[in-house]
Design goal:
Radius of gyration: 28 Å
CATH topology of the largest domain: Rossmann fold
Helix content: 25-40%
Number of helices: 13
Strand order of the largest sheet: 14-13-12-11-15-18-19-20-22
Number of strands: 23
Largest sheet: 9 strands, mixed
Structural class: alpha/beta
Strand content: 25-35%
Number of domains: 2
Shape: elongated
């Protein structure tokens, strides 16, 4: 007996399929008929979101889809009027499948085909290596090092130099290396970053993804200055280029370790690694690629921080941010801004540049316990002299008119605070 509430939810197409499927069960079956040609997949495939596709035949009004891990025990997984069926399967398994067509009189079974869903690697690392500026020689040195690193992770590098038509894509998997020469790309354009991310995920699907953005950094104003095109990536461009959430985003660039950058990525990544101040070239060695063998993103991030070569001359820190804690941190920043008066003496004592202060030091000077606790929840690891969390805090006359347009400023009163004093 059917539930009347359930019947009202059945669409017209669904009802037709149901009625035809009931009718088809009373008709004879022809086995292994070549009239139903299975087209895809056959062989090894990388993605476990699988489209089963067969050649359409106008004679059939209904298709029954069977699949299983054993050729002698296929199970009915779907009934459709279309010549394709989408199903999610497990990595590392071999599957057998067939399709039965119903023409109103007979059910015809196709031959059985087989395919294997390849085991996914734990990590795919995407490196956005911008040498289209005065960092060219250093970028060239980095790509040469990366090419010779043995890693369990899949590595895809988009490299652009400071000459015309010197953009290359490097794909590294185990001992296999492929290099593709591309047309000149603008590394300051979001479509270029999106290209790297989409291509990497399609070519090397994995359980976890890491994105490193390498180049000149300017904090909340952007990163990856491209000299040829006189352009750089804004925070909005980075956020919109990341269409599928990434486990770790690394900024190998100066001044990107600030609350404004972290807040912009809160829905695009789980963790962020960045330096709040100047980051010496080569201090974040790509040797970290050798040790990506943990399925826990936070553990991987902690190892990267541990391996950071923190020079004694560096007054700031590289930090690992847990972006799931950002909303609570911003709430405490607002609470702080409402209940504490600005002291320029304390501001100057915690400043590490003309534009930024270390938020942890600033909160400590006020003994703002709630804000300190929220910072400790957000920054889960750091290497250097400071905790590694910056916030924009120039003198009032130097506050940029563009600052108020940031996502962070739309939900925070921090910009009003620094403008009003």
């Amino acid at each position: 007996m059917f539930d009347s509430k359930m019947i009202t939810k059945i669409t017209a197409t669904g009802l037709i399929i149901f009625m035809l499927s009931m009718q088809a069960l009373a008709f004879p079956i022809w086995e292994n008929n070549d009239s139903i040609a299975l087209l895809s997949p056959i062989g090894d495939i990388s993605n476990n979101d699988v489209f089963l596709i067969w050649k359409p035949d106008k004679n059939y009004i209904l298709y029954f889809v069977y699949i299983g891990e054993n050729e002698s025990n296929l199970k009915l997984v779907g009934i459709t009027i279309r010549p394709f069926f989408k199903i999610k399967l497990d990595d590392g398994k071999t599957y057998f499948w067939r399709v039965a067509g119903f023409d109103g009189r007979f059910i015809t079974m196709s031959k059985i085909k087989t395919f294997k869903v390849k085991e996914k690697n734990d990590w795919t690392v995407m490196i956005y290596l911008n040498g289209d500026n005065d960092l060219y020689e250093y970028a060239l040195s980095e790509i040469n090092k990366i090419k010779n690193i043995s890693s369990t992770a899949n590595i895809v590098v988009l490299f652009d130099g400071n000459k015309e038509n010197d953009t290359f894509l490097y794909c590294i998997k185990n001992s296999s290396k492929m290099v593709f020469k591309l047309n000149e790309m603008n590394m300051g354009e979001k479509s270029t970053l999106r290209y790297l991310i989409k291509y990497s995920m399609q070519l090397y699907p994995a359980r976890h993804y890491m994105l490193e953005i390498w180049g000149h950094g300017a904090g909340w104003m952007g990163v990856c200055f491209d000299k040829t095109d006189m352009d750089m990536l804004s925070l909005d461009e980075i956020k919109s280029a990341i269409e599928k959430k990434i486990d770790i985003v690394i900024f190998t660039a100066c001044y990107m370790g600030c609350i404004e950058v972290a807040y912009s990525l809160k829905n695009a990544a789980n963790y962020m690694i960045a330096c709040e101040g100047a980051l010496p070239i080569g201090s974040l060695s790509h040797d970290f690629l050798r040790g990506i063998n943990d399925s826990n993103a936070e553990n991987v991030g902690r190892k990267i921080i541990e391996n950071f070569n923190c020079s004694a001359s560096i007054s700031t820190s590289l930090a690992l941010w847990n972006l799931s804690k950002i909303n609570e941190l911003v709430g405490e920043i607002n609470n702080f801004a409402m209940h504490y008066n600005i002291s320029w003496e304390l501001r100057n004592a915690s400043a590490y540049s003309m534009q930024y202060v270390d938020l942890f030091e600033y909160a400590e000077l006020y003994n703002a316990t709630s804000l300190i606790n929220a910072i400790n929840e957000t920054i889960v690891a750091f290497s250097g002299k400071k905790v590694g969390i910056g916030i924009y805090f120039p003198l009032p006359q130097y506050v940029s008119k563009y600052y108020q347009n940031l996502d962070f400023c739309k939900i925070s009163i921090w910009d009003e605070l620094i403008r009003s004093n």
